[in-house]
Write a structure and sequence with these properties.
It comes from Absicoccus porci. This protein is α/β, with parallel strands linked by helices. The protein contains 13 helices and twelve strands. Helix 5 runs parallel beside helix 6 and helix 11 runs parallel beside helix 13. The longest helix has 25 residues. The N and C termini lie far apart (56 Å). It binds 4'-deoxy-4'-aminopyridoxal-5'-phosphate.
Length: 388
């Protein structure tokens, strides 16, 4: 038999999956591992989907998605984020943000092109770059700098071969965010180099403490920015598999070329649900955000009180807890915590080499669940005689 694709063969299995497989063999596990909202999709959104089925809306849509949905997306982004995209030529509705990441890489890259990625970063970026023939060039983000991207690091990473950069703020796994002023310092470098920036903004609605900002708000570089977003996190709609890409018309056209061959159109029922979400679902988003905020405050305060010094994350539903003072590496820490106390967290190195020394804890779980997990983590730290 002939070998399968070398790129696929060399792809590492996801460090998140590896850990879940282990946790699933144990009883009574409190998992703080999963990256999806614990809320069910708001009922009025489900009803809109059911109504669309009753109305016989069971066919393919336009390749880019229903125009009504694209118009709602354009309106939402204009009103909430001051981002301006033409629903007819600059928006493509995709199968989750996941498809968005994949097809934007395929639309941009030639073999050997360099793509700057953050370390730590979300697990899907490096495989997407590799599958599109690109080469990842990491920039290390540090806790000491609140996991933000510094202009001097960006400048130093750019070479003649750089085609694009992938960023994700608010960030999975670190919870780090960039402000408008932080981005303003990157804009001249991005403009001058001409690189594309794929900005994964899937956690935009889960911004706490400060207003969400985006590079797409800067007109000077708007044609170089590709925004990935979707319904999974903000509206608790992970299973509906719906996202979208916002990009300047020529780039959007290239992306649509790929989408039309590999997907045709995103699921129609989900598109009707999404129209309802954008029209009437914002109070639900606000309610969930409030709840996440309570949980974040409780979790971060408890972790710091235990001596696991943790930045206050300004977005997402993740905390990237610093375990360096325990002297354990992150995999040993997570394995032992799971074995002794039946609490599942994700080792930071699942998100890149420089995630070592950290563990990702998700607070997309009920307060009671989080409180019980904290009791167990405290107990674990006592068992290893941890000195704060
Ligand atoms: N980007 C980031 C940073 C994520 O955390 C996720 C989901 N875990 C996605 C993209 C993909 O989300 P979806 O495909 O459900 O829209």
């Amino acid at each position: 038999m002939k070998p399968i694709s070398t790129v696929v063969e060399q792809m590492k299995p996801s460090g998140i999956r590896k850990f879940f497989d282990l946790a699933s063999t144990m009883d009574d596990v409190i998992s703080l591992g999963v990256g999806e909202p614990d809320f069910a999709t708001p009922w009025h959104i489900c009803q809109a989907a059911m109504q669309s089925l009753a109305d016989g809306k069971t066919h393919y849509t336009a390749n880019r998605g229903l125009l009504e949905l694209r118009e709602e997306i354009a309106k939402f982004h204009h009103e909430h984020y001051d981002q301006n995209y033409d629903p007819k030529t600059e928006i493509v509705v995709t199968v989750g943000g996941s498809e968005g990441i994949d097809i934007s890489m395929r639309a941009l890259l030639n073999p050997g092109d360099e793509v700057i990625v953050m370390d730590p970063n979300y697990v899907a970026y490096e495989p997407a770059v590799a599958l599109a023939g690109g080469v990842c060039v990491p920039i290390v983000l540090t806790k000491e700098n609140e996991f933000k991207l510094k202009p001097e690091d960006l400048q130093a990473a750019i070479t003649d071969k750089t085609k694009a950069m992938i960023i994700n703020f608010p960030s999975n796994p670190t919870g780090g965010v960039m402000t408008y002023d932080d981005y303003a310092k990157l804009v001249p470098i991005i403009k001058e180099s001409g690189i594309y920036v794929v900005s994964d903004e899937i956690y935009a609605e889960l911004s706490f403490d400060q207003k969400f900002a985006s590079l797409a708000q800067f007109n000077e570089v708007r044609d170089q920015i590709i925004v990935i977003n979707g319904f999974s996190k903000a509206f608790a709609m992970t299973g509906w598999r719906l996202g979208y890409i916002l990009a300047d018309a020529p780039v959007s056209k290239a992306i649509t070329k790929i989408h039309q061959y590999i997907i045709m159109s995103a699921p129609v029922t989900s598109q009707y649900a999404a129209i309802e979400a954008l029209k009437n679902g914002y109070p639900d988003v606000e309610m969930m955000r409030e709840e996440y905020l309570h949980r974040r405050n409780l979790l971060v305060n408890r972790l710091n009180a235990m001596g696991l010094h943790t930045n206050m994350p300004h977005g997402t539903f993740y905390v990237f807890a610093d375990i360096r003072k325990t002297g354990m590496d992150c995999e040993t820490f997570c394995n032992e915590l799971l074995e002794k106390e039946h609490v599942a967290c994700i080792p930071g190195n699942a998100f890149g080499e420089h995630g070592e020394g950290f563990i990702r804890i998700s607070y997309a779980y009920s307060l009671n669940h989080i409180k019980e997990a904290c009791v167990r983590i405290q107990h674990f730290l006592e068992s290893i005689h941890y000195q704060k």
